[in-house]
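Treating backbone geometry as a discrete language has practical consequences that deserve illustration. The sequence in question and its structure tokens are set out directly beneath this paragraph.
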Amino acid sequence: MILVISAQLFGWLVTIFNIPVTVTNFVMTVAGNHTVFLFFTVVLLIICGMFMEVGATVLILAPILAPMATAFGVDAVHFGMLMVFVLAMGQATPPFGTTLFVACGITKEPVFRVSRQLMPFIVCEIVCAFLFAYAPVLSTFLPNLMQ
């Protein structure tokens, strides 16, 4: 709970000090278009997902990344689903994936052995993450049917 409260406080401070606007302006000059932005976002979320808890990562990064995604013209539903997918993938990736440790505890297998067996699945998930990033119809098809 301390982690979640700290993340919420950080998110509030980020919003109060208008950091998303500053970061958005900087990223828009560096990234240039939504393709580069999505690439760097997926890489950032994979790295954060490997080392941080999902709830805290969302609370910290969503107020920063969501305005940038909107500024680049990325659909909010598409970006939200991409963020959730990539961070969920991070729960199973070494070195600190929470579900990885749960699986090791249940199977009584060492982390290294389970991690080695997970590698083909992680590679497949990374390919799917980039596929979802660059084919928004995959994540917005059903929500668009409901409109």
User: Anything to note?
Assistant: The helical segments are 2-16, 19-31, 34-51, 54-71, 76-90, 98-107, 111-134, 137-145. DSSP finds eight helices and no strands in the chain.
